[in-house]
Amino acid sequence: MNIHEYQAKELLKSFGVPVPNGDVAFNDKQAAQVAEELGGSRWVVKAQIHAGGRGKAGGVKVVDSIDQVKKAADAMIGHRLVTHQTGPAGSMVQRVWIEQASDIKHEFYLGFVIDRATQRITVIASSEGGMDIEEVAQAHPDKIVKEVVDPAIGLRDFQCRKVATAIGLKGKLMPQMVKLMKAIYRCMRDKDVLQAEINPLAVVGDGDEKLMVLDAKFSFDDNALFRQRGVTDLRDLAEEDPKEVEATGHGLNYIALDGNIGCIVNGAGLAMASLDAITLHGGRPANFLDVGGGASPEKVTNACRIVLQDPNVKCILVNIFAGINRCDWIAQGLIQACNSLQIKVPLIVRLAGTNVEEGRQILAESGLSFITAENLDAAAAKAVATVQG
Predict the structure, then answer these.
(1) Which residue range or ranges hold the ATP-grasp domain (predicted)?
(2) Under 8 Å between Cβ of 233 and 287
């Protein structure tokens, strides 16, 4: 689950992390009011969407008058912002964040991520902030520093100082960096954050320089939201694919892709293998959908309905290896879906495991035109051949 920048900043602030003063606005008049209450002579107007690259796409404006604040907010709110992370369709801007402009002396990158290889939180930092960290890692790998955190003892002061030294922070900024990094680490640990990206972390001010988080991007562990009620309240459903939101409500794991072969599979590993098999045969999967264990006929019907909401879907591949599931349940669900949804696209079905013979018999006696396959490879080949005519 992702949250907006302003929500991430409010969360960080609650852990003692320095962030600029600001507030959110939902129209140009509110934006002007926020700027007036903040005071000063320069402000930053930032579009709030769940995507990076906003600055390059015109979603971040530095202005020096209240009238310009209103104009910038009006130009963003109610319009789609297209960045390299949103795709060509872009994302609708429904709110903006207004903050006092900072006198930036230097920008850094700071990230906290879960390293799947070490199964530990890893700190990633660079002296090259304000730009895509992927580009820095590719062009200047020597400017990337990493520090792995031992979960038994947490992030230590010497590790923070090591990171600070590596990116060029010293003097009065060193203890600030230690305090800031440990606060972000506590936030990540306590709130079940999968990724906390601070870009840029900046040195601001004229005489008395200090560190300030100017942008923040947070991603949370969906599986831990049951114990993070405060985090769940930050979820913005308008920023998510409606199909994915509906699937979650039915206990389905759905991720939209850009292909034309719909996929209904049980088990994440088998679902990934199904996507690979389709791609291997020259096809393009339209989605990842895991019905999980114990899929009832109603659950299968809901899965079909959600997959078919994508107008690009030309056929559906159903790949079930039943353990907890039962093939006869799946077969009944597919028949129910065909009858209630009036499915017009071809259904390629591969069943294996518990009650497989009963399931195949139910499909054969249904009077419906299912295309069956004995294994995944054959099913994927038939799905691709069906789409290609």
Answers:
(1) 9-246
(2) no
* Residues catalogued as catalytic: 109, 197
Q: Check the annotation: does 54 bind a ligand.
A: yes
pLDDT digits (tens, 9 = 90+) for 100-156: 998 899 999 999 999 988 889 999 999 887 666 777 767 777 788 999 999 999 999
pLDDT in tens, 206-234: 778 899 999 999 999 888 888 988 888 88
Tokens representing 78? 């109610």
Token pair for 234: 């930050």
Is the model's pTM score more than 0.85? no
CATH classification of 21-101 is 3.30.1490.20, yes or no? Answer: yes
The fold of the 241-387 domain, in CATH, is: Rossmann fold (3.40.50)
At 169, phi and psi to the nearest 5? -90, 140
DSSP per position, 115-128: ETTTTEEEEEEES-
Is 102 labeled as ligand-binding? yes
Half-sphere CA count of 304, side-chain side, radius 13 A: 32
Grouping H, G, I as helix, E, B as strand and the rest as coil, residue 147 is: strand
Q: Which of 287-318 are b and which e, b meaning 16 or more Cβ less than 10 Å from the residue's Cβ? A: bbbbbeeebbbebbbbbbbbbbebeebbbbbb
